[in-house]
Design goal:
The protein has 140 residues and is an alpha+beta fold. The chain contains two helices and five strands. Strand 1 and strand 2 form a beta hairpin. The chain is elongated, with a radius of gyration of 20 Å.
Length: 140
């Protein structure tokens, strides 16, 4: 996947993904104003605005997707099934489901920095593109 180096945070480069032909019609990484911003670790310094290739292991990508999307779906199904078994009013079941999902995403948001520090879900810069730097810096 292509990405542009936008800044540095300690030893990690903050990169923004770029949609390329390999994305097909997915474009999930570039929803909104720009691409997804994430941390990537490289073996050398890449200048700001450099275009680089980044990778994340398939196993970790699937795990992150499951945590972000699969777990909430299973939580919703469990709440609906339990609510049906206990014959709880549907309005209460919906409110409980919303409260649980919001709480789950707040929890994920709060532990995000801890997960980032673990390095498990950090992308790796595999190579930089030649002549990708646009020269926008001052030399003193």
């Amino acid at each position: 996947m292509l990405a542009k180096v936008i800044s540095y945070k300690g030893e990690y480069a903050r990169v923004e993904t770029i949609v390329d032909s390999a994305c097909g019609s997915c474009k999930e990484c570039s929803k909104g104003q720009g691409g997804k911003k994430l941390l990537a670790k490289g073996d050398k310094f890449y200048p700001i605005n450099s275009i680089v290739n980044i990778e994340i292991s398939s196993k970790n990508l699937l795990l992150a997707s499951f945590i972000a999307y699969g777990v909430p779906v299973f939580m919703l199904l469990a709440i609906v099934i339990i609510g049906g078994i206990l014959k709880v009013n549907e309005a209460y079941t919906i409110l409980l489901a919303l409260a649980v999902i919001v709480s789950y995403y707040l929890y994920i948001h709060n532990i995000d920095s801890k997960i980032s520090r673990s390095g498990k879900f950090i992308a790796v810069i595999t190579e930089g593109k030649e002549n990708s730097f646009d020269g926008k810096f001052k030399i003193n």
